[in-house]
Specification:
There is one protein chain. This protein is mainly α and about 375 residues long. The chain has 4 domains: about 90 residues, Serine Threonine Protein Phosphatase 5, Tetratricopeptide repeat, CATH 1.25.40.10; about 70 residues, Alpha Horseshoe (Serine Threonine Protein Phosphatase 5, Tetratricopeptide repeat), CATH 1.25.40; about 90 residues, Tetratricopeptide repeat domain (Serine Threonine Protein Phosphatase 5, Tetratricopeptide repeat), CATH 1.25.40.10; about 90 residues, Alpha Horseshoe (Serine Threonine Protein Phosphatase 5, Tetratricopeptide repeat). The protein is built from 21 helices and no strands. The radius of gyration is 31 Å and the shape is elongated. The N terminus is likely disordered.
Length: about 375
């Protein structure tokens, strides 16, 4: 009997020593993770798993470490291993859902987050993440319901308010988006609100064509970050909408100082110079875009300059070739029809515009030009 008790005591002591070692390694591992010393943290968690292959702290720690390294698929494996042995582990559920979100597997992320809510039904962070995931899936109804559920718990939750703004913006409901984003200004002024809220409000005004109102918000954003792309782009586009190409060029060129190979901005700058009838500058910008790679709007810009300079046949040839690249681009049909109008071939202009309409695409500019040609032909009788 004495020998058995000695053996049992030795086993208990060994267990306590092992348990203490695991506790110490676990604390050390998580501290190293906080300090972003991920490789060292991994070693701690691996040592724990050598002592206890299903240890929940170590498996979650391995998942968190892999997630910090961007190895999300590896992290999924560790979180799932933890949940197989420790169902309902909140940390594993949270980490696993976040991995699926990063991997763009939103239905899986939603499923895991909803599992988490069984243990913590009023966690607004998880609820907003579910709403965000539904938004990514373009599920307006469920996304809106989840955001509103958060607002019932916290009526000024910024993530839910901003999320509702993005949701309505994504569905082109710009006035509703504006309502939610402006709510962020109710409790703080422009100098304190997140700069992304300012550019988002500016973008709503840009879409609603209330350009003067948009300028104020983009300006406020630019005061905070002088090189913010979205503020510079927004201001350029607002002045473009207000038909102030010279002002727009200030911002297009500021973007190009940072990103000289941005094709969209090169063609926008080309358009501004074209409007100002500074054709040499316009050609330079269009060609810079085309030298990067083929760009339909750069080529369209050059054809437009040919038309404006009276080289109509050359413009017609260029535009006809461009239709092969982009057969449903209404701007090509409008420019081509205008070329035929300039050489008094109204019949061919009508045929060009009707060819576009046969695609079943409704475009007000095409319809208006057709009506204008019809009225001109009647007046000429």
């Amino acid at each position: 009997m004495g020998d058995i008790r000695i053996l049992e005591n030795a086993q208990d002591e060994q267990f306590l020593t092992c348990s203490q070692e695991i506790t110490d390694l676990s604390k050390e591992g998580y501290q190293l993770l906080k300090e972003n010393r991920v490789n060292e943290a991994l070693e701690c968690f691996k040592q724990i798993l050598e002592l206890d292959t299903d240890n929940n702290y170590a498996l979650v720690g391995m998942g968190d470490s892999c997630r910090k390294r961007g190895a999300h698929r590896d992290a999924v494996r560790y979180y799932e291993q933890c949940l197989n042995h420790h169902p309902g582990n909140n940390y594993a559920l949270f980490g696993l859902a976040d991995c699926y979100k990063v991997l763009n597997q939103y239905p899986m992320a939603i499923k895991i987050w909803k599992e988490y809510l069984k243990h913590d039904s009023r966690n607004v962070t998880v609820l907003t993440r579910i709403a965000d995931a539904y938004r990514k899936l373009r599920d307006f109804k469920n996304s809106k319901e989840e955001y509103e559920r958060v607002l019932q718990m916290e009526d000024h939750n910024p993530y839910a308010i901003i999320g509702l703004g993005h949701l309505h913006y994504d569905f082109k409901e710009y006035r509703d988006a504006l309502y939610f984003w402006e709510k962020m200004l109710e409790t703080r002024n422009m100098a304190c609100v997140d700069i992304r809220v300012l550019t988002s409000i500016g973008n709503c005004h840009r879409k609603l064509k209330t350009f003067d109102d948009g300028i104020a918000y983009f300006d406020a954003a630019l005061q905070r970050e002088p090189n913010n792309f979205y503020a510079l782009f927004g201001l350029g586009d607002c002045f473009r909408g207000l038909n102030q190409p010279r002002r727009a060029l200030e911002y297009w060129n500021r973007i190009l100082q940072q990103d000289p190979r941005n094709k969209v901005i090169l063609t926008r700058a080309g358009d501004a110079y074209c409007t100002l009838r500074e054709f040499d500058n316009a050609k330079d910008y269009y060609n810079r875009a085309l030298n990067i790679e083929f760009d339909i709007y750069g080529a369209l810009g050059l054809a437009t300059i040919d038309k404006l300079q009276g080289h109509i046949e050359q413009a017609i040839n260029s535009l006809t070739k461009l239709l092969q690249h982009d057969p449903k681009n209404h701007r090509l049909y409008l420019e081509l029809a205008d070329c035929y109008i300039k050489i008094d071939d109204a019949h061919q202009a009508v045929e060009i515009l009707r060819a576009f309409q046969r695609f079943g695409i409704r475009n007000n500019a095409v319809t208006d030009l057709l009506e204008k040609i019809g009225e001109s032909r009647i007046a000429a009788l």
